[in-house]
Design goal:
This protein is α/β, with parallel strands linked by helices. Helix content is about 30%, strand content about 20%. It folds into 2 domains: about 150 residues, NAD(P)-binding Rossmann-like Domain (Rossmann fold), CATH 3.40.50.720; about 250 residues, 2-Layer Sandwich (Dihydrodipicolinate Reductase, domain 2). It has 14 helices and 15 strands. The strands form 2 sheets. It has a 9-stranded mixed sheet with strand order 13-12-11-7-10-9-8-14-15, covered by helices on one side. Strand 14 and strand 15 form a beta hairpin. The longest helix is centred in the last third of the chain and has 20 residues. It starts with 15 loop residues before the first helix and ends in an 11-residue tail after the last helix.
Length: about 450
Amino acid sequence: MNHKVTRRQFIGTGAASAFAFTFLPSRVWGANERVYVASIGVGGKGSSDVSGVDNNGGTIVALCDVDRARAKGSFKKYPYANRYRDFRKMLEKEQKAIDAVTVSTPDHTHAHASIMAMEMGKHVYCQKPLTHSVWEARRMAEVARKQGVVTQMGNQAHSGEPIRRGVELIRAGVIGNVKEVYTWTNRPIWPQGITRPEETPDVPDHLAWDLWLGPAPWRPYHPAYVPFKWRGWWDFGTGALGDMACHIMDMAYWSLDLGAPETVDAESGGMTKESPPNWSTVSYQFPARGYQPPVKYYWYDGKKENGNRNLPPDDVLEGEDPGQWDCVLIGDKGKMWFKRGGPGSDIGDDFDNSYWKIRSDRDLSDFKAPPKVIPRTKNEDYEWVQGIKGGPTPLSNFTRSGPFTETVLLGNLAIRLNKRLEWDSHNLKATNAPEADQYIKREYREGWRFI
């Protein structure tokens, strides 16, 4: 059966009923067949997510965005796709026409859109961080597992060679048993530590403000929130940690099979009730796993009051350029500086290259490079689409990225409460801090689907 799409197959750019009958979902795909996709959030990062899926075997059936100005580029590129503002209406109307959904909205609507799609049996790709709250991350993994759908979180480098080879090297013991990990970012690059604006300007005609707010508490529109600065507000974003840790913490978390931490500590500066801090340092304590020792895992972001970047201690960096690397792993036989960026398809197994530098207490000339046992893929979009078509399960699927996101977001709990958290992962409870419950599972605005 040929599913090649031509413009003649479409009637206009918004005839939903005609479009729905043009596309019939398929459960078994041939090698050259397409996967029919609806995309939620198609401006900004969402535009590249839509293009990535389109370029790797997806056919874009419908586009949804609350901001028509931001979505203009995607609307122009896919003139045949039906257009929506409310993802709930899109999913209901296009349910029989689509196989899969991409979600590239602000953090606070990730779970609502993704879970609704998964409960319809649709495969889902969702941008990082997977969710806005710890409880939502647990639910995302549970629903994905129950529905048996193919999922992928959008931490792109997880599909690249540097991370996958780095995981293999660490697991092969290139620096021995790892006991400490240090990670950092230059974020935030948007305003944080701020208070709510008092002005109430008119909502731009191109923006459906109430839909943009979604499940978050209602507040008047202000350009301090959209289109990009929402990351610096607790109601919508998850700060620098939520934005970047799902990228930067990934390799070490994966290679060490870390699971859930036992305790989480944090210190920060400049935080307000409404907005994440200007800088933060988070430390996670992970238990021993079999023969592997306990791990202390540190996170650094932002700039301190003196204008200096918040970075690991000098004895960790040892004079290395922090802009070159964003992760250091310290083992009982050596040390690795690591950078996740780029596909790096031909990096080989050198111990000093553009993606990592390894210093060992032993002679590495005798170290036997491990075989490449982790599946390789072209990119994350290809991995997801091929998984839908019966290929290998994407490796950043929600059953893995859900627990990882839980761990990342626990750092925000410690930041907001300014105290050590003793964490009971099974019950999703900070056993020493009942006041954390309000952040573990947030309240949703009246009229929004309870998930």
